[in-house]
Amino acid sequence: MTKINILSPLLADMIAAGEVVERPASVIKELVENSFDAGAGKVTVEFKNGGATYIRVTDNGCGMSPEDAGIAFTRHATSKLHDEKGLEAIGTMGFRGEALAAIAAVSRIELKTREKGAEVGTCVTVQAGDITDMSPCGCPEGTTITIRDIFFNTPARLKFLKSDRSESGACIAAALRCALGRPEVSLRCLRDGQEEFFTPGDGRGDSAVYSLLGRDIANGMLPISCDGEDVSLTGFVSSPAKSRGNRSMQYFFCNGRYIKSALLQSAVEQAYKNTLLVGRFPACVIYLTLKTSAVDVNVHPAKTEVKFSDEKKVFDSVYQTVRACLEAEQKPLEIKLSQSTQRVVAEPKQDFFKSMSAETYRETTLKSTSPLSNTAPAQPQREAFFDTRARSVKTPVSQPRFSPVNVEKTVETVEKIATPTYRVVGEALNTYILVEQGEELILIDKHAAHERMIFDRLKAQGRQIMSQALLEPVITKPSSDDAELIEKNAELLSQLGFELEAYGASAYAVRALPDDIDAFEAGAAVEEICDKLKKGRLNPDSARDEALHTVACKAAIKAGRRHDMRELERIAESVCSGQVKYCPHGRPVAVHLTKNELDKFFSRIV
Q1: What is the DSSP code string of 237-281?
Q2: In 3D, which of 22, 191, 172 has the Cα closest to residue 103?
Q3: For residues 120 and 69, what is the distance between their CA atoms, to the nearest angstrom?
Q4: Which of the listed CATH numbers 2.30.30.240, 3.30.565.10, 3.40.50.620, 3.90.180.10 matches domain 9-198?
Q5: Residue 388 · residue 423 · CB < 8 Å
Q6: Tens of pLDDT along 104-136?
Q7: Rounded CA gap, 125 and 103, in Å?
Q8: Distance of CA 292 to CAs 32, 345, 375, Å?
Q9: Among residues 28, 38, 545, 576, which one has the fewest Cβ atoms lying within 10 Å of its Cβ?
Q10: What is the Cα–Cα distance from 558 to 556, expressed in whole angstroms?
């Protein structure tokens, strides 16, 4: 008896459906792309319950004749490819003839379509790949296709669908990418009867970006354009000041098709080199136009991966165009200061505590003590904090608690341990602390060192981090993938001090943050944590550490700002004592230059 069996056509279609129909969002993508190929100027996408039970796509395209409607659900049936030569220059969104057959194999379908100029339309009912009814009907010109109960006959696939909220986010993202790639088509998306977005279809990329990505992102975009002989591109890239915490706002289109391309991603990010902080990413919407023979879209059934015949030329075109745009940007950020702030900035800075008399300083310290405390504070030695002469282990352990002037963040108290004598010389370039220790000059990256101090403290707690409730919640709108991560890692985010709750269909309200993070950084912190979770999701400990990196980074004092000498001395003490050697990302926090090396540099010795 033979061991090799020939699968039935239905089973073969169900297996093939797994390549095309991963989830309801895949169905929306395929149906909308069919509408584009039909020449539609208006498309409406509707879905309910995350698309699992109901999806309807309506367009005003060319429609189908009764003959075409009858064979549309047959595998490898397509009007877009006629022979093998067509594969060399594919100009349509679809061409494989697999999408409708794959969708029909795992769902219940009703199709209503009417050709332009025809008196009546055609209604086709399909269940699990078989046509159960086909008859004339009245309907408008164009096509309306309704999909119900996806995976009803494949329970193994059905159980892998995520929550309605996650699937809805994926459906909206799929429709959004389609709409963003075709600004000339008006697309409306409805979720459970509520409109999610609407594009005017005026053919303008800026209108599509504004309608789909929002005003804040659109206002931070810079237009780009390059009309080359082989490669043309238009679109928008974000100003360096409007960078993001992850790559969720990077969209690439090739001949109107949304694609995923590490090549294009690298070209854009290389253009931003030395203009963005580590861990920040640009947003972009880039439309590439190439000869159809110069790009191969027949790489994967989903058609989101492509191959370019000349990758270097494509890379160079994107890189040079984006780079030229950033270099041409001369409009500075306009920062408006109140008159009172301008007066403070204009006044010469002075050390508030050095200007105090000993008696005034003592009174200030006593007043800063909680009135509920019955224990008198230890009298600090003022010279231990502010004397620029050499410091040693004689520094008192007990520190006063007060809020000095011009201090943006208070560095947490570090337990004093025996350290060699050192002297904080000052601060260079608002970034590095200069410390003299013995026969060495030490340059300390204040942000990296402070970030490590906070990370070690949070890591040592091993429990839920203290959080602060916000007077006004911060609304953030993550991508569908990020929304899924937020929902899946709600407990971890709570342990980190974040309190997020669903706000509408695709947004979240941040109601509490870790007590060290400022409210204006809430959205960026959530974005970065989601990006970290993508990399460490399989290991809970790793995921927590990656998330703590973000919390520590956002809470640490920032480079580019001057800070109080007391803060700098606390950081210097942690580094000089050996407590802090590397930042949480593994970068060194200090550089040591010996006197001998400096003498050689200045030719004082040979």
Answers
A1: EE-GGG-BSSSTTEEEEETTEEE--HHHHHHHHHHTTTTS-TT-B
A2: 22
A3: 13
A4: 3.30.565.10
A5: yes
A6: 889 999 999 999 989 999 999 999 888 999 999
A7: 13
A8: 21, 59, 80
A9: 545
A10: 6
**pLDDT value of residue 384:** 37
Q: Which amino acid is at 86?
A: G
pLDDT band per the 50, 70, 90 thresholds, residue 184: very high
The position carrying tokens 């395209």 is 61
Tokens 């809805």 sit at which residue? 168
Tell me where in the chain the CATH 3.30.1540.20 domain(s) lie: 384-606
For 479-516, the pLDDT digits (tens) are: 888 888 888 888 888 888 889 998 877 789 999 988 76
> What is residue 297's predicted lDDT score, i.e. its pLDDT?
77
pTM for the model: 0.64
In the chain, which segments carry CATH 3.30.230.10?
214-327
Q: Where in the chain is the domain with CATH 3.30.565.10?
A: 9-198
CB 42 within 8 Å of CB 202: no
In angstroms, the Cα distances linking 436 to 24, 264, 517, 564, 573 are: 63, 47, 32, 18, 12
Does residue 365 surpass a pLDDT of 50? Answer: no
DSSP state of 440: E
Q: Is 214-327 a domain of CATH 3.40.50.720?
A: no
**What is the spatial distance between Cα 76 and Cα 67, in angstroms, rounded to a whole number?**
16
Q: Which amino acid is at 106?
A: V
Among 194, 67, 191, CA closest to 122: 67
Most confident of 123-132, 341-350, 406-415: 123-132
Contact by Cβ (8 Å): 199, 208: yes
| Residue 68 in tokens | 């075409």
Residue closest to 35 by CA, chosen among 109, 144, 120, 115: 144
As a whole number of angstroms, the longest Cα–Cα distance in the chain is 103
List the end-to-end C-alpha distance of the chain, in Å, as a whole number. Answer: 90
**Of 72-81, 107-116, 187-196, the least confident:** 72-81
Contact 589, 577 (CB under 8 A): no
Q: Which fold has domain 384-606?
A: formyl-coa transferase, domain 3 (3.30.1540)
Instruction: Answer with the residue of higher pLDDT: 466 or 226.
Output: 226
SS3 category, 187: strand
Compute and round to an integer the Cα radius of gyration of the chain: 31
Tokens of residue 198, six digits? 């609407």
Distance CA 24, CA 171 (A): 7
Measured CA distances, 106 to 335, 456, 529 (Å): 57, 52, 36
pLDDT category at 414 given cuts 50, 70, 90 is very low
